[in-house]
Design a protein that fits this description.
Length: 474
């Protein structure tokens, strides 16, 4: 598949005719190419979005809602075909890919409804001859910059609320996964939105990403990715005071108290550590286990991890696919080597799998400690490090001891303890006995170095709206 650029309602090649290749991380085979856009292309694309913005902002909300519902329905019609491409491009197991495509459709349905609820407010006036109220309007051209790990649903999570609010969008996917993003744009093309409402650019992030963010015609940047690039984006948006939403990296703790259901905790770790081979912003990076249940948990986790089927995600029985590229393998290997040099024990796994593809064995490390790199940096791979704790106060302090604050998980059957944990943990999301808190209906986002703003739920559309306050005397 050879993806093109998309603007002014048309598929076009870049003016310089340059392309880059896309690889299947399970086989190392080239599965397609995408355009390395030039600055001239980018200028045309932003111009197209500017025209689209003025048309779409004036389009009635119920018309926008109907268009979004059509997108949702078309995504569902193509779910299997989209899931296969997603697995071939990103590597995740096919069942996870189907679920990601379904979530993408759910975002369009949810925000079709939210398009009708961008209410302003009327305030009690301090005078009989004066009225005061607010209206909501779309923020304008929105650049949506997305990572490779959820390359379909992350775009939908941003695009659906942006379009619902009346903004035009420019989608800039990651270089590893432009093909599935391009398929989403094909679906949207079939819905016949006004020209310029949806636009698509691929290419060198230094050139395209930097200039997209810094262009004064772009009024909103919604970014999901690493904290490092998030900082760069914030700097680049500063000159034009462009609104920025950032969904960044995490360093999620999971705390397992001795009163928890150990079976639930083990299943929770399998879900939030080995899903997408651990390449999830919500993946747990630090597993804190109360000392008196450590050996029980370690044994059951070992059994569950050994049962995981690793391989090409297109095969039906596979539960965990490859990592995205060699850099990811190198980072995971470095974290494991650093941990073992500082006293961790490899309970299982701990090595890359030789041969084609970027596979790493599902790994459990015991005796993990805060001296290790993996306690401070996202591993973004299938490595479950077990830390031990004794008291509640101690574990909260250790769990909060990170500049990140995306998500924390707690396993306990004690309601009072759960309420204390919710109050004390300094994270944007807390999952109590729940390893999968991310939902279309709920606001997801981090505090501290994990980001600015929220995606999902009603909060998600707020990121694309401005408030106009009116005061009228008569
Ligand atoms: P990344 O390297 O930060 O890249 C994210 C996106 O930014 C890609 O499209 C990338 O393009 C682009 N980019 C790179 N440099 C840029 C620049 N100077 N200006 C504008 N755009 C630029 O992140 P990643 O490796 O793709 O994704 C993994 C990270 O995303 C992890 O840290 C993970 O935790 C985080 N994440 C967070 C959430 C959340 O909801 N909080 C969700 C998913 C992932 P190229 O790919 O072409 O370099």
């Amino acid at each position: 598949m050879d993806a093109q650029l998309y603007y002014e309602g048309q598929w076009l090649d870049g003016v310089e005719m340059q392309r880059f290749t896309v690889e299947n991380p399970a086989t190392n085979q080239v599965i397609g190419t995408a355009v390395s856009a030039s600055l001239k292309d980018l200028d045309r694309i932003i111009g197209s979005a500017e025209k689209g913005s003025s048309i779409w902002a004036k389009t009635l909300a119920n018309e926008r809602a109907r268009a979004l519902k059509r997108v949702a329905s078309l995504i569902r019609d193509h779910q299997d075909e989209l899931a296969l491409l997603l697995t071939q491009e990103e590597g995740k197991a096919i069942g996870e890919a189907r679920s990601e495509i379904g979530t993408g459709a759910d975002f369009f349905d949810f925000y079709a409804a939210e398009a009708l609820r961008t209410y302003g407010t009327t305030m009690p006036s301090p005078s009989p001859s004066r009225s005061i109220w607010t209206t909501r309007s779309p923020i304008g051209v929105s650049a949506l910059i997305t990572p490779w790990n959820y390359p379909f649903s992350t775009i939908c999570r941003k695009m659906a609320p942006a379009l619902a609010a009346g903004c035009s969008v420019i989608v800039k996917p990651a270089e590893e996964t432009p093909l599935i993003a391009s398929k989403l744009i094909e679906i949207i093309h079939a819905v016949n939105l006004p020209k310029g409402v949806v636009n698509f650019v691929t290419g060198d992030p230094q050139l395209i990403g930097t200039n997209l963010v810094a262009d004064p015609r772009v009024r909103k940047v919604s970014f999901t990715g690493s904290t490092e690039i998030g900082r760069t984006i914030l700097h680049n948006a500063a000159d034009n005071i462009t609104s920025v939403s950032l969904e960044l990296g995490g360093n999620a703790p999971v705390i397992i108290f001795d009163d928890a259901s150990i079976d639930d905790a083990v299943q929770g770790i399998i879900r939030c550590k080995f899903r997408n081979a651990g390449q999830v912003c919500l993946a747990t990076n630090r597993i804190y286990v109360q000392r008196n249940v450590l050996s029980q948990l370690r044994e059951r986790l070992h059994q569950a991890v050994n049962a995981l089927q690793v391989g090409d995600g297109t095969h039906q029985n596979v539960q965990m696919g490859p990592l995205i590229n060699q850099q990811a393998i190198d980072k995971v290997s470095h974290h494991v080597a650093d941990a073992t040099a500082k006293g961790a024990t490899i309970e299982c796994g701990g090595e890359a799998i030789p041969g084609a593809g970027y596979f790493y064995t599902p790994t459990i490390l015991s005796n993990a400690s805060e001296t290790m790199t993996l306690a401070h940096e996202e591993t973004f791979g299938p490595v479950a490090p077990l830390f031990t704790f004794d008291t509640e106060d101690e574990v909260y302090e250790r769990a909060n001891g990170t500049p990140y604050g995306l998500v924390a998980y707690v396993f306990t059957k004690n309601l009072t303890r759960a309420m204390r944990a919710i109050g004390v943990l300094d994270f944007g999301v807390v999952g109590v006995n729940d390893p999968g808190p991310s939902l279309v209906e709920a606001p997801l986002g981090g505090v501290k170095a994990s980001g600015l703003g929220r995606e999902g739920g009603h909060d998600g559309i707020e990121e694309f709206l401005e408030t106009k306050y009116v005061s009228m005397r008569y």
